[in-house]
Input
Amino acid sequence: MNPQTGAGLLITFEGVDGSGKSTQAALFAGRLEQEGVPLLALRDPGANAISERIRALLLDRALAEMSPWSELLLYEAARAQMTGQQIIPALAEGRMVVCDRYYDSTTAYQGYGRQLDLELVQQANRIGSCSLVPDVTFLIDVEMEVVRRRLSARASAADRMEAAGLDFQDRVRQGYLQLAAAAPERVYLIPGNRPIEQIQSHIWHLFINRFQRHLNRPGEENA
Ligand code: ADP
Output
């Protein structure tokens, strides 16, 4: 049970672009669905009309002059909308919420990547998330060389954040590693340079070990 809402769980997936987090978030949500768990799968920024419009601004390569503070606040604005409109109501109904990125992305990208003041970034994160804290976060970690290979194989052009360069992405990665080290009880570090199915199974086992009772299968409430 989510201690903040008394209901569903908030499960987030994090990692640098190309780490495979979206692949894993989708597979994880699919697995929960198979188990018959009521859930809501979202991506941050996005998932509703207002946040999707903000997302389009954030990723538009034509807007290269966007200041880092403006970028930070736009991410938080998109997140606040999604949190209020979708996450909090879903958790209150007892649904699991699977989120592809959440505020750890802002700490990693705007805090460590853009090198904004970390304390201010954390304050902004509290506003954007309405002070919600994920119940568990899976951080998919891969070396930059692997990311480079995967992204160059992608058909689509790089968006504004992906175009920020590999040094930037490496600072983001190091930021994520620090987050995981600072909160190991919440942020699980998942080695991502492995076959997709192996990573999926690793994540699922970690999740089940800790949250089995939330699946509410008949006869397993107290497992
Ligand atoms: P992200 O959401 O972190 O940007 P994606 O899940 O979109 O990453 O994956 C980026 C690319 O890497 C995609 O082409 C995807 O198919 C591929 N990919 C994802 N996970 C793996 C993996 N474990 N091994 C090899 N390729 C992967």
Notes: Helices lie at 21-34, 49-59, 68-92, 103-113, 118-128, 144-153, 166-182, 196-211. Residues 9-215 form a domain with the Rossmann fold fold (CATH 3.40.50.300). The beta strands are 10-14, 39-43, 96-100, 136-141, 187-191.
